[in-house]
């Protein structure tokens, strides 16, 4: 059945292309944060282990919200490592990192997602897509706060 929600098909496609990149970034950061949760060591272990768990749990919930918005706009959400690898702006973690390196890497990831979300705002705004704008605003707030919290751990 044809979608008739007041947003033109071409605008929906542009918005969902951006949301697909946001989904890929979010899922990639989820994997990275979960990896760091498992593998962090050092004197800050307990605090970082807990912080990383809080952040990856929030990211896991976010991927569902983003994918469901893509579906509500009539497109299929990417859902494979291969698709995410093509779309993400976040590099995968390789090897073993120190706790400080993990924190700095996660700051970059949080900031990257905030930038990806921000890049979609003009497209969603042009189409008067308030639900997407609301989602993007929430994502930017969360990622900017997470980046700040992580940055505050670095001397």
UniProtKB/TrEMBL annotation:
Domain of life: Bacteria
Limits of the Ferritin/DPS domain: 17-154
Record-stated family: Belongs to the Dps family.
Organism whose genome encodes this protein: Rheinheimera riviphila
Name of this chain's protein: DNA starvation/stationary phase protection protein
PROSITE patterns named in the record: DPS_1 (PS00818), DPS_2 (PS00819)
GO molecular function term, any single one: oxidoreductase activity, acting on metal ions
InterPro entries in the record: DPS_DNA-bd, DPS_DNA-bd_CS, Ferritin-like, Ferritin-like_SF, Ferritin_DPS_dom
């Amino acid at each position: 059945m044809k979608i008739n929600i007041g947003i033109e098909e071409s605008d929906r496609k542009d918005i969902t292309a951006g949301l697909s990149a946001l989904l890929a970034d979010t899922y990639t950061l989820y994997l990275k944060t979960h990896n760091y949760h498992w593998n962090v060591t050092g004197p800050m272990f307990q605090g970082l282990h807990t912080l990383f768990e809080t952040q990856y749990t929030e990211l896991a919930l976010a991927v569902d919200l983003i994918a469901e918005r893509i579906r509500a706009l009539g497109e299929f959400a990417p859902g494979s490592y291969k698709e995410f690898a093509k779309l993400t702006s976040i590099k995968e973690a390789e090897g073993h990192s120190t706790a400080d390196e993990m924190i700095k890497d996660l700051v970059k990831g949080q900031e990257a997602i905030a930038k990806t979300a921000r890049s979609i705002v003009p497209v969603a705004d042009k189409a008067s897509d308030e639900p997407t704008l609301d989602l993007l605003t929430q994502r930017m707030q969360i990622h900017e706060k997470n980046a700040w919290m992580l940055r505050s751990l670095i001397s």
